[in-house]
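Lecture notes, part 5. Sequence design as translation. It can be helpful to think of inverse folding as translation between two languages: the language of shapes and the language of residues. The source text, in structure tokens, appears below.
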């Protein structure tokens, strides 16, 4: 604890150029939520194509995939474990990157943890829950019509898939922090398995999963790009954990 005192004192003496992690997260929220106001024609065209992709999936894939999963659905332990990477295990992934980065003094791992947490909070804590509430789509296992939407119904929360959103948000963050192709392929492939697991358990239609994947990927990439710009201009106060040390790390470009 004594080793942390200098860093803690530095936090109290923070100047106008220093930006704490909570401030970074708040800035990320503002950046993502207000993004449509900054979109140009190309961005809106991309959003339109993405919407068509979701609608096309709903029309063509939702019913046959639901029926197929009903024939094969069961209690597969592997699929159940994979599914949890879109919920409780996601926190373990973020924490693992943070601990690894803190112990090895690896800035990339630390930034993956920071950006992953921010992307998760925004994508899975704000964007997807809001759309779920507005859409109010019933889940496949409810046995209702495929296109049963009841806006602002607490019981109906199928669209989009929250687990898939979470998995793809983390996958996008990891993939955009590392240049290796295998990291990108592995990250998105595993996220895709999370979505498949949700379909297997009759929790979501195919279009729910596609929408969740798009939201997670978009938010993850946006957070990484925005925070990279912040880090290049600001001094950042980061929590620090290491053997015999609990404090705050001051990082930035000088």
């Amino acid at each position: 604890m004594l080793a942390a005192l200098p860093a803690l004192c530095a936090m109290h003496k923070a100047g106008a150029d220093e930006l704490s992690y909570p401030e970074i997260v708040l800035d990320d929220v503002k950046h993502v939520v207000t993004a449509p106001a900054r979109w140009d024609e190309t961005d809106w065209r991309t959003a339109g194509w993405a919407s068509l992709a979701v609608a096309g999936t709903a029309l063509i894939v939702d019913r046959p995939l639901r029926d197929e999963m009903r024939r094969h659905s069961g209690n597969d332990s592997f699929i159940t474990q994979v599914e949890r990477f879109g919920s409780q295990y996601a926190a373990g992934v973020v924490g693992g990157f943070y601990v690894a980065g803190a112990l090895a003094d690896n800035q990339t791992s630390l930034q993956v943890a920071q950006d992953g947490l921010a992307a998760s909070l925004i994508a899975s804590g704000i964007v997807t829950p809001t759309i779920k509430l507005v859409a109010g789509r019933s889940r496949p296992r409810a046995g209702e019509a495929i296109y049963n939407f009841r806006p602002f119904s607490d019981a109906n929360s199928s669209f989009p898939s929250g687990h898939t959103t979470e998995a793809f948000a983390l996958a996008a963050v990891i993939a955009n922090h590392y240049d290796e192709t295998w990291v990108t392929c592995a990250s998105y492939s595993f996220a895709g398995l999370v979505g498949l697991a949700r379909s297997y358990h009759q929790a979501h239609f195919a279009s729910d999963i596609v929408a969740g994947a798009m939201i997670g990927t978009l938010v993850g990439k946006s957070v990484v790009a925005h925070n990279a710009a912040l880090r290049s201009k600001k001094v950042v106060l980061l929590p620090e954990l290491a053997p015999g040390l609990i404090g705050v790390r001051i990082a930035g470009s000088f």
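The translated text above is only one of many valid answers, since several sequences can fold into similar shapes. The mean pLDDT is 86.
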